[in-house]
Automatic annotation (TrEMBL):
Domain GGDEF: 458-594
Organism domain of life: Bacteria
Key words of the record: Membrane, Transmembrane, Transmembrane helix
Ubl conjugation keyword on record: no
Transmembrane segments: 31-52, 59-76, 96-117, 129-150, 162-186, 198-219, 225-244
InterPro entries in alphabetical order: Cyclic-di-GMP_PDE-like (IPR050706), EAL_dom (IPR001633), EAL_sf (IPR035919), GAF (IPR003018), GAF-like_dom_sf (IPR029016), GGDEF_dom (IPR000160), Nucleotide_cyclase (IPR029787), Rev_trsase/Diguanyl_cyclase (IPR043128)
Keyword Transmembrane helix: yes
GO MF annotations, alphabetized: cyclic-guanylate-specific phosphodiesterase activity
Domain EAL: 602-855
Protein name as annotated: Bifunctional diguanylate cyclase/phosphodiesterase
Length: 871
């Protein structure tokens, strides 16, 4: 198996299509080829002149046998690829050494040229014919010259076959040296170590072949029935060749399968690496060079003149055609839909030949400039991805064989599987970075997209946008319609911002966007425009649903990239601005550093509240309630107070809403209720029957277990239920009436007193008052304070008193600060008064002192002790 190293014909794509040659290298190679031809012809002529021809009758059968031997050696080759250049490992040394020992130079040269040139002409490999003819001449001239010199020098000292063996070694060495030179001219490769290893390999394999030839010659001349032994040796060698070639083919097939699968997989990872890319584009955006490499690898492995990939990864898009090898004839790049080689049923490889095909197939092959073709469809899990075509096998007289069919089928299966896996990877990554409802970016995808742009841009503005319509729509029409509004809102934002702006749906009706290369003023202007876009009515089931929207934004500092401000921090700042806008009633607000301090303080209060309860920082103050007109002290309202070690005395309006927004509101209510009940129990032990009122949160009314906790607290403190009151706002009840009303009914059944606080300010006072199981109404202090100057407020107070009494309810007036207001309330028939005129909220000790100083004991009805205000 000598290394007969001749670069194959460029027109057949055995050289130039495997290595796209530089034009200057191409010109240099042509000059080198002509030089090799000249040297080869001159060397052959010199050897022929030196070794005159001796005609013998045995040449009549030796000549044809040598031609047959060289033909077999030419076609029983092993094709390998070195640096994308095709090389043929053949067995020409065997007929060469036989010719050295048995035939004149001219006969061997003629046999070699006839076999080699004839084979290339039959295969239509003509572009390298000049170079190959020169090499053929040198492959015969050099061995004959060395053989003749050694034969004369070793005559009598060694048998002739020694000279033949050493002379024949010149053939693979000469062809290897010329081949490496040609390769260096074409590609600038290989380097010296690789060239040395290749030459050594050539020498070893050539020596093996020459040894086989010498053994065959000696056996045929010296052994009886030697030709039988030679037949056995040749048969064994052929079997060894087939086994070796089969193993080599399997190894290369496995390497090709692995390379093709990895090429698609790796390119798929690179393509879908960026969030925000549409899924369809990520599936079809495999680099053209990658497809070209895949097609080229298929062509090399199949030794085909051409491999064509027709790809339809996007069913809605056009078919892509990738050609490796000799270009397709004009008009054949895009076959028609009814082409018999494109639309194939099933997923098996089909083999077409012009010799035995029908007219349609023969016409399709002729249209492609091919005589034979292997065609296999690329079928994914759910669709046809395209087809693979291989045209005209090279380096053999025969066409494509069973191994080629098997290889192409396996390759197509692996390629289709790799493409399906790539599609799945694209889908998984798309889903990981996109919101399933709107197909916009989600929070992780937005984070990646923002980081990518902040690395390349400065002067950016990050927006947070909230759509305020969802709860009302969900309650009235269901979540499906609220989802449709979210989708419509996302579509509006996308159209307003364009495809290049990262836009995300964070949750619910919350969106975020990044504006790059924008000033803060430009960001504010666009934020106002987006507010108008979101706030426009939404058509829902023949209705126009009015929507509200709030926008907060933050200007990104110049160093706000990967090493600067984090995306989550920017989102938090934009959210702070959005909440500030919602609190102030503005449509758009920019983030200011002072806002961060406010919300940081609120965060600190929430996180420190539990510790504040345990450490005694939070206490309960009591504000008395007095009956009108008798001025008996009926009870107190329990009000929470917090003296913070760092911030000092905190207003309840600052920390109570923050606590209510968390899960700590239950702890706050329980703390106030337990403190109030303990106080009531202490008063009972002293003979005083005073009630305590505790404010309830919306979260308390939504807790089905709250009545059970109230009942347990009453039993624990041994307090009659009528001495405990719960005050609730009607807006809190109406937030979720289907959950609040059952809780209120259970509390009312316990016997506790229920009061509607801030009555008159709700949107449903008159409509829902009769449905609530309440005992008292408390007139909001804003109306009481305005009675002295506003006749409208006085009318409202009078109406509430009359409405309460008509429903059998006790009416309590808050905010009584003047004697005139108290007298007016007495005139209207109001039952109870509460306010600064009577007392401010007092700590426990100060309230006890107030009772001692401002009240007198008296015996009331049923011999109960009552406290009455002194005048």
């Amino acid at each position: 198996m000598s290394d007969h190293h001749r670069p194959h014909d460029p027109d057949s794509s055995r050289l130039s299509d495997r290595a796209q040659m530089d034009p200057r290298r191409r010109l240099l190679y042509r000059a080198f080829s002509r030089a090799v031809l000249v040297v080869g012809v001159v060397a052959a002529a010199a050897v022929a002149w030196w070794l005159p021809l001796e005609l013998e009758t045995r040449l009549l059968w030796i000549g044809p046998l040598l031609v047959l031997g060289f033909l077999l050696a030419e076609h029983l080759t092993i094709d390998v690829d070195i640096r994308q250049v095709g090389w043929a490992i053949s067995f020409t040394e065997i007929p060469l050494v036989l010719g050295l020992l048995s035939a004149p130079f001219e006969v061997v040269l003629a046999a070699h040229l006839l076999a080699g040139v004839g084979s290339q002409l039959v295969r239509r490999l003509t572009s390298n014919l000049v170079y190959n003819v020169g090499v053929m001449c040198l492959e015969i001239a050099a061995p004959f010259a060395i053989y003749s010199l050694l034969k004369q020098a070793l005559e009598g000292a060694a048998p002739p076959w020694v000279a033949a063996l050493l002379g024949a070694l010149a053939a693979p060495l000469v062809s290897t040296a010329l081949g490496l030179t040609a390769l260096n001219i074409l590609r600038g490769e290989p380097r010296l170590p690789a060239a040395f290893r290749l030459a050594l390999h050539t020498l070893v394999v050539g020596l093996l072949n020459i040894s086989v030839g010498v053994v065959v010659y000696e056996v045929a001349h010296r052994a009886d029935w030697g030709w039988v032994l030679n037949i056995l040796v040749v048969a064994a060698l052929a079997a060894l060749y087939r086994a070796y070639y089969g193993l080599l083919r399997e190894q290369r097939d496995l390497e090709t399968l692995s390379d093709v699968s990895l090429s698609v997989a790796r390119s798929g990872q690179q393509v879908v690496a960026r969030p925000g890319k549409l899924l369809e584009s990520s599936l079809t955006e495999l680099d053209s060079d990658e497809w070209q490499k895949i097609a080229q690898r298929l062509r090399e492995q199949l030794s085909a003149k051409r491999v064509v990939l027709h790809l339809r990864l996007d069913q809605a898009g056009p078919t892509r055609t990738v050609v490796a090898g000799r270009p397709l004839p004009a008009g054949a790049e895009h076959p028609s839909p009814d082409d018999p080689l494109v639309e194939l049923p099933g997923g098996h490889v089909r083999y077409f030949r012009s010799l035995d095909a029908d007219d349609d197939v023969r016409q399709a092959l002729r249209h492609r400039g091919a005589h034979e073709s292997l065609v296999v469809p690329l079928r994914g899990a759910h669709q046809l991805l395209g087809t693979v075509e291989a045209h005209d096998r090279l380096s053999r007289w025969r066409g494509f064989g069973r191994s080629d069919v098997q290889l192409l089928g396996t390759l197509a299966s692996h390629l289709a599987t790799a493409l399906d896996n790539r599609r799945l990877l694209a889908r998984l990554r798309h889903d990981a970075y996109h919101d399933p409802l709107t197909n916009l970016l989600n929070r992780p995808g937005f984070r990646e997209a923002v980081l990518e742009r902040l690395r390349r841009h400065s002067g950016s503005v990050l927006l947070r946008l909230d759509l305020d319509v969802l709860s009302a729509v969900s309650d009235a029409l269901g979540h499906t319609w609220s989802d449709r509004i979210v989708v419509a809102a996302g579509r509006r934002l996308k159209e307003a911002l364009g495809d290049d702006v990262p836009l995300a749906r964070l949750e619910g009706g919350a969106f975020a966007a990044l504006l790059v290369d924008r000033t803060e003023a430009e960001g504010h202007k666009l934020a106002e425009q987006l507010h108008e876009v979101l706030a426009a009515p939404y058509p829902v089931d023949k209705l126009n649903v009015e929507a509200g929207a709030v926008v907060g934004y933050v200007a990104v500092p110049p160093d706000g990239g990967e090493g600067g401000v984090e995306v989550d921090s920017l989102l938090q700042r934009a959210d702070v601005a959005l909440r500030a806008a919602r609190t102030s009633g503005d449509a758009v607000r920019a983030y200011l550093p002072s806002m961060g301090q406010i919300f940081l303080r609120r965060f600190q209060l929430v996180t420190q509240f539990r510790q504040a309860l345990d450490s005694g920082q939070v206490t309960v103050h009591y504000q008395p309630k007095v009956a009108l007109p008798g001025r008996e002290v009926l009870g107190v309202e329990a009000l929470v107070r917090w003296v913070h070690p760092e911030f000092g005395r905190l207003d309840p309006d600052e920390f109570v809403p923050a606590v209510e927004a968390t899960g700590l509101v239950d702890a706050l209510t329980s703390f106030v209720m337990d403190s109030a009940l303990a106080k009531v129990r202490g008063w009972l032990d002293r003979g005083l029957r005073l009630s305590a009122a505790v404010n309830l949160s919306v979260r308390n009314l939504a807790d089905e277990t709250f009545p059970d906790r109230v009942a347990e607290a009453l039993r624990r403190h041994d307090v009659p239920p009528r001495l405990l009151s719960f005050e609730l706002t009607e807006s809190g009840v109406m937030a979720e009436p289907e959950r609040a009303l059952p809780v209120l009914r259970r509390l009312h059944a316990l016997g506790v007193v229920l009061a509607v606080d801030d009555f008159g300010t709700g949107y449903s006072s008159l409509a829902y008052l009769r449905q609530l199981p309440v005992d008292e109404v408390k007139i909001d202090k804003s109306f009481v304070l305005g009675m002295g100057t506003d006749l409208g407020d006085m009318a409202v107070v009078r109406s509430i008193v009359e409405l309460g009494h008509s429903l059998g309810l006790i009416v309590v007036a808050e905010g009584v600060e003047e004697d005139a207001a108290r007298d007016q309330l007495i005139e209207m028939g109001c039952d109870v008064a509460q306010g600064y005129l009577i007392s401010r909220p007092l700590s426990e000790d100060r309230f006890e002192a107030w009772l001692r100083a401002r009240t007198v004991r008296a015996r009331g009805r049923r011999d109960e002790t009552v406290l009455t205000l002194v005048r």
